[in-house]
């Protein structure tokens, strides 16, 4: 057996490809305490936050695609303005 099947599989909201959950970054929407935005999209690095999550490859192109497609609000089931800066900060640490 050469395939690595068996782990939970999720869809990247950027490129829409399916991947093992462990290969994707999970993110959740949290209420913006500052009131500047409706929601803050925050990486859930420990996979510990409850609630609805969305998944993305750790790849700036997937982040871009998801943003262009306005996939965050849809995937996270939230409406209103979204602060993506925590994701953009995280994206700076991703390999290019
Ligand atoms: Zn992707």
Give structural notes.
By secondary structure, the protein is an alpha+beta fold. The chain has a single domain, classed as 2-Layer Sandwich (Hypothetical Cytosolic Protein, Chain: A). 23% of the residues lie in helices and 25% in strands. It is built from 3 helices and 6 strands. It has helices spanning 60-68, 71-76, 85-91; strands at residues 9-11, 18-20, 25-31, 39-43, 53-56, 82-83. It has a 4-stranded mixed sheet. It is globular, with a radius of gyration of 13 Å. Zinc ion (ZN) is lined by residues 12, 14-15, 17, 57, 59, 62.
Tell me the distance between the termini.
Answer: 32 Å
Strand order of the largest sheet: 5-3-4-6
What's the helix count?
3
Query: Could you say what the CATH topology is called?
Result: Hypothetical Cytosolic Protein, Chain: A
- Main beta sheet: 4 strands, mixed
Looking at this structure, what is the CATH superfamily?
Answer: YlxR-like
CATH class (first level) name:
Alpha Beta
Please state the structural category: alpha+beta
Kindly provide the radius of gyration, computed on alpha-carbon positions and rounded to a whole number of angstroms. 13 Å
Bound molecules: zinc ion
H/E order of the elements? EEEEEHHEH
